[in-house]
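Batch job 17 of 40 flagged for manual review because the log was empty.
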Amino acid sequence: MKRGQVSIFIIIGLLILFIVGFFVVLEGIEKAIPEAEENPIVTSVSASLSSCLEPQLQKAITLVSLHGGYFETPPYEIEDTFTQEYSLGIPYYFFNNKDVAPTAETINEQLALALESQVHECTDFSYYPYNISLSSTPTVTAQMTTDDVEATVTFPLEISTENVKYTLDSVSISVPSHLFKLYTTALAITEEQTKNPNLLCITCLSQLAEKNEFYLGMIELKQENKYTLLYILNDRNTEHETVPLLSFYFGHSFIQGAAEENPLITPIQKQIAPIGYVYQYNVIATGKNLTFSDDSSVFTIDPETGTISFLPEPEDIGSWIVTITATDADQKKTETSFVFEITDVVHSELSVEGFPYFIAHVGEQFSYTANVTASESVYFLDDTDLFDIDTKTGIITFTPSISSVGSHNFTITAIDTQGNKAEQQGYMVITK
C-alpha cells in the first residue's frame, strides 16, 4: 500500500473520531443546560410563583381602583376636607375646567408599581427542596384588558439541583377584572363634564355608568374656594361571579359657585313598593329655593320638601320610569329618572345603601348608621376587627387606635326575617 493511501485513511479516521467526540460533548452540554420550559422543576417553581402572585395582583388592582388608577400620589389630588392635612390619594379627573384624567399607560404603570411592592411576599424560597437564588430585584409590567389584568414579573431566578442549574426568567399571570371598564366609564363621565364645564347633569352621567351596569355614587365636598364632587363607580350590579367586585374613586373640581348654578339631584336607584304598605322616599337635592315635581301617575311628590309618600293600591300594580324635576328660584332645572315598581306582594329583596368615603382619626369617636331598604325586620353583621356594628340598629361606633392607622376594606351584611341577605362593601381611611 502506498504511503499516500495510508495518510488518507488516517485523516478519515481522525475526522470520524472528531465528529463522534463533538456529538458526545454536545449531548453533555444539552444535559447540563436543559430547556427551562420542558423541565418539571422549573415548571413547578413557575406554577408555585403564579399561584402566589395572582392574589397579590388582585390586591394591587383593588388598591389602584380605590385610588382612581394610582398607586403613587396623583398629580391632581383631592384633599382631606376635614383636616386639610392628610392625603386621600384620590385623583381629580376634571380640574380647573380641564380633563386631567390619567392615560391607560399611566394606570398600567401604577398597577406594575403596586404589584412590584407585593412581589416580596412570593420570594421566600426556603421551603423548596433545592437552592433558588434571585440575582436582581424583580421588575413588573402590567396591562389592563377588557376583561382582566395581565402582568409579567421578570426576575431572573437560578435554580440549582444535583449539580444542574436552570433559569426562570419571568412569570406571566392574569386575573379577571372590570378595572378597564370602570376606568373607561370614568373617562366618559369626565369627557361629558368637559363639554359643559359649568353645568351638571347627574342623570346624564348616571346613564353613562348604567350602560356597563355600574352604580354611580356621589359625595359633595365643599371647601372655602372650591367645590368637589367625589364619584364612586361600583360594579356590584354586574352578574359575573368570578370577577371580584371593585370600587373606582375619582373627583371633579369646580370653581366655587359654578357647580351651584344649577340644581343637583342625587341619583335614585330602582324603587320597589308593595301594595298595602306606606311607601316613603326623600329626594336629596341641592340648590336655592328648590321646588319639586314628578311625571308619575301613582304618586305626587311634595313640591317643597321633595318627599314621596303614599299607600299603593292593587290598581297601581305595575312598573314605570319616573322622572323627578328640581327647579330653583331662577327657573333653572335638573332632573333624574329611575325605575319605580309596585308589586302585589311584599317584595323580599333588600339592599344596603352605598357607603361614603369614610375618614376617621385616631382618638376621635367615629359614628355612622348603615341604612337599608327592606320590607322585613333586619339585623346586621360585619366582617372586620376594626369595629362591631350594632346588630339591631346598624350603628357603627368606635374610636380608632394608633394601630389601626391605614386603609381598611369591610363588608356589612343585612339579613331579614325571611333569611334574605344583602351586602355592601365599604372603605375607610384612618389617620393620626
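Reviewer: the log was empty due to a logging misconfiguration, but the result itself is present. The helical segments are 3-32, 40-66, 104-116, 179-195, 202-210. Unflagging and moving on to job 18.
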